[in-house]
Known about the structure:
The complex is a heterodimer.
Chain A: H1 5-14, E1 22-25, H2 28-38, E2 42-46, E3 59-62, H3 65-75, E4 79-80, E5 83-84, E6 88-92, E7 98-107, E8 112-118, H4 125-131, E9 136-141, H5 149-158, H6 166-182, E10 185-195, E11 201-203, E12 207-210, H7 222-231, H8 234-241, E13 245-248, E14 253-257, H9 260-272, E15 279-282, H10 289-300, E16 307-314, H11 319-332, E17 339-345, H12 348-356, E18 363-365, H13 369-380
Parallel strand pairs in A: 14-16, 16-17, 17-18
Antiparallel strand pairs in A: 1-6, 2-3, 2-6, 4-5, 7-8, 7-10, 8-9, 10-11, 10-12, 13-15
Helix pairs in contact in A: 2-3, 5-6, 10-11, 11-12
Chain B: E1 10-14, H1 19-30, E2 34-39, E3 47-48, E4 51-54, H2 57-64, E5 68-71, H3 78-87, E6 92-95, H4 102-115, E7 120-122, E8 128-131, E9 135-138, E10 147-154, H5 157-169, E11 174-179, H6 190-199, E12 205-211, H7 216-227, E13 233-238, H8 262-271, E14 275-277, H9 280-290
Parallel strand pairs in B: 1-2, 1-5, 2-4, 5-6, 6-7, 10-11, 10-12, 12-13, 13-14
Antiparallel strand pairs in B: 3-4, 8-9, 8-11
Amino acid sequence: MDLFEYQGKQYFARYHIPVSPGGVADTVDEAVKVADQSGYPVVVKAQVQVGGRGKAGGIKLAKDAAEARYYADQILGMDIKGHTVHRVWVERASDIAEEYYASFTLDRAAKRYLGMLSAQGGVEIEAVAEKDPSAIALIYIDPTVGLSEAQCREWVAAAKLNPKATEGAVAILLKLYTCFTQGDADLVEINPLILTPDGSVHALDAKVTLDDDAAYRHPEWEEFRAMQQANLQGREKLAKEKGLQYVGLDGSVGIIANGAGLAMSTCDTVNQVGGRPANFLDIGGGANADVVANALTVISTDPNVRSIFINIFGGVTRCDEVARGILEGMERVKLTVPVVVRLDGTNSAEGRAIIDERVNAQLIRKNTMLEAAQTAVALAKGN
Amino acid sequence: MAIFVNENTKVVVQGLTGDQGRFYGLRNRAYGTQVVAGTNPKKAGTDVEGIPIFAGVKDAVEKAGANASFIIVPASVAPAAILESAAAGIELIVCVTEHIPMHEQARIFNTLKRDYPKVQLIGPNCSGILSAGKCNIGFTPAEVSTPGNVGVVSRSGTLAYQSVYELTQQGMGLSTCVGIGGDPVPGTSFIDCLKAFAEDPETHGVIMIGEIGGTAEEQAAEFIAANMRHKPVVSYIAGVTAPPGKKMGHAGAIVSGNKGTAQAKMDALRAAGASVALNPTELGVLMAKALGK
């Protein structure tokens, strides 16, 4: 789960990572109130999960209440790359002497944690890495040992930050590491981490990705989840409510498959034969009538879908059971587009026979994944 | 031969008394796997269809001779179950449990490496391991396989089954199929499996199925270039059409920026001398060609 900036800052605050005084607002009046409390000048920041907020006019500096009102009014309701702004974060503007970058994540190749720290913050770290990799100080941390203060100090020295920032940076990085591990985050990133003219160090932005698998031991995440859910739109929301693994794509062939690998592979195969997948949808192992009906319901609300490809490899799930699930699921959902089914694996002969009894213009069965993909693509193109 | 497991493997199922554990444990036994024990501290002394239940893995090792474990318990207790097996002297642990937090996975991996370097952990969140005709631990539907000389290693379970089926369709058989799982910190890597297949006289060729995210396939490509010249490797990568920044079902399957794309992985594998199939059906076709069948 990717947190919004304001949620990231709230999460940082739990781990005593200093951020600018500020607060979140859903209305113009609230925004002005937060601005008054924070002290002018303030920055009004659109809360959307998409890059390039600043360029789109979603981040503005306001020197007094009138300006705060003007900008909050402008930003709330604004559309930034298809994301409507429902909330703003308002915080006191900081004097910036220097901008740094700091993050912790898992290095999947090394199977250890990786900390990155750079004196060149405020810009995309990928750009820094490309231009001047030596400008990023890396530290690999054994998860069973953790990050000691001495190691952290060496790391900060290696990053060549302004000596004035050393103590502040060491303190923040140790807290950020705790936030990363105890906070069950996949990623914590501060960009920029700033040094102010008076020598203090604090986080001006917050990027936090929480590990959904750890939700069971973080009841405090509930409000984050509720907010994320509220921000989901259309089919993604419907799919989530029905407990399906769904990712919307922009093509015309609806995809239903069992298993994440096979679902990805099905999208690819449709693409390979000249079509475009409308979605990724994994119904998992138990493809019973309820699950199939739910999947068809979600896909049938996509106006771009011209055909649906159900691709099942019966492993432990038996194909005959799946075939019955498909027929029953199709009875429950009114479909206006044709469905192409491919069944392979355990009890495939029985499963195919069940489908074959009911084959018509709306329900087509093919023997292989490739043939089924070609048929679904041809139907989507109106052939 | 075959790799990691064979007809002498004796399995203790941690979670045998649960619904899922019972279903798959008995299914594995029905295939011919020696399932010698289950564990449950509250049900020690009972049995599941004749399989004795012990309080813990230590008893299963001492009293039933278990030398491998199959972990099928909830995510919140799976890390402790893995360490229990390792501490009891088990050297092959198959953990199918999904949704174990990333930080737990990282801690478990590094703890095993430091304290129990001989342990081979397969998973978590994997489909398991099947040595055709000898031993099946986990979810793999062994019915679609026949014993033979092709090894399979895959992140995805369903694509592993699919490829085993494609082999059967082409008249080829399977030595061992390892599902290494789609999580960020798998206990067993592609390279661990490739290394074992390279040394296994019964394995004549290897199918490797990867997917988007991470750099495991690129690392495997380096290994293939240096060490697999004597055995053909046929590969397939899922997720060509996956948009950046979206998790495609598996926790590990995500393209971030321009890292972890399917194209980069396919290029690396081709450069290493592996054949790259563009869909699962081609896996079987290309392997048949490589082995002259």
